[in-house]
Design a protein that fits this description.
115 residues; 7 helices; 71% helix; elongated
Length: 115
């Protein structure tokens, strides 16, 4: 199986959109993540990649997910709401909530199949 090279141009467009949404200049974003503004420009143009540690800083600074920058996948509002609620629970409570949610999802599937 051949894997096609990654298109850094699309990621660069998403970085630029996220930066503009936060109203950061290239220089401000560069300072936040400790790289040069020239590197931000090259990233946005899709001319270069970045290290994993810099990518993580970029996601945090722009308050976006790695899935969004890499693939353009946005989290749904419902998913964010569920994640926010779960984050308020202890680890064991999160496990119980996951079990309850699994039972609920199965019940919903069974109901829609019988209709």
């Amino acid at each position: 199986m051949k894997i096609n090279p990654y298109d850094f141009g699309m990621m660069g467009n998403r970085i630029k959109q996220a930066r503009n949404a936060k109203r950061y200049t290239q220089a401000e974003l560069a300072e936040f993540i400790d790289i040069s503004s020239k590197n931000i420009s090259q990233l946005e143009l899709g001319l270069m990649g970045i290290s994993l540690s810099t990518f993580i800083k970029l996601c945090k600074a722009l308050e976006v997910s790695a899935d969004y920058l890499l693939f353009g996948i946005k989290s749904s509002e419902q998913n964010n709401t569920i994640n926010m609620m779960l984050s308020e629970l202890s680890e064991i409570e999160q496990l119980y909530a996951g079990d309850l949610l699994s039972v609920y999802v199965e019940a919903c599937k069974n109901i829609s199949q019988s209709e």
